[in-house]
Amino acid sequence: MSTALAVDRLQFAFTVTFHYIFPQLTMGLALLLVVLKTLALRTGNEHYNRCARFWVKIFAINFAMGVVTGIPMEFQFGTNWAKFSRAAGGVLGQTLAMEGVFSFFLESTFLGLLVFGEKRLGPRLHWLAAVMVFAGSWLSGFFIIATDAWMQYPVGYTVGANGDILLRSFQDLIFNPWTLWQYLHNMIAAVVTASFVMAAVGAFYLLSDKHNVYGRTFVRVGVTAGFLATLLMLFPTGDRQGKMIAQHQPVTLAAMEGLFESRWRVIVTPDRIPRPIITTMPTPIHCCGMCSMFAPMARPIISTMKPAMYSPKDISFLLARLLQTYFQRLTKRGEPIGLMVRIRTFS
Prior knowledge:
It contains 12 helices and 6 strands. By secondary structure, the protein is mainly alpha-helical.
């Protein structure tokens, strides 16, 4: 924190992180609103319309918060990263401007009809308004992801005589190979967020024995959508996005795994376990060569640890070791807790 660069990074990171709390819920809820309105239109059941009205109110408030928190973020492109914005503005300005002119106004216009125009529009046109809000929010996400994808994998540009970055091919910018999987992964993750929120509200109603009819609908729609979206987030979108990172940014993949020494056959340790805990485990879990299987196109990445004398052959081993480590840390004792573990040795 001793330099202006560190302060700029911290401020921008906080602004982006706080802002994104709201758009991810907005983009996910947009799809779920279309689901509820479609169920209402096809079944003729007014119950689904009442459910949709409830979530439209939350959507509108969340959308307003996203706008309010997004304005400072856009200003910080110029205040915190002035030289970068001046140099790359000819490229990034294209997608950012399209996000504001096309998708934002599309979403905000039809959101007004969705909130206030149900009685005047009728069932079909009100359903169409929900579809257009969904299209606007997901189109907005596309342009933002296209902007970030260019910063991750720049294509379709040339460098001018004065050092400015100039757009050479708009098609290459929009159809950047990095964009597709990052966009799909991000939007499906937004659906996961909205599904969990909807299911959580429904669970609250059911547990408090209030509005049980609505609670069951929220839980059913939220859990179903969340389960399907979670599967798609893992594969193929997460898998392909991970392989893109491995192919084009091997150092980034290494940093994500907390690994620091180069090795060809990478050893993967379980996620979400702090590295100090792994290093002090009696029998650390190492899946030798696993990351090489996940990212076959990767160049030599890295690992901090040498291969252990144990190789987990089935999921029961992994779960048992994770539970054993957790309870050992929880009770601050080093003795086993009685879990049966199958271990296979290899030479």
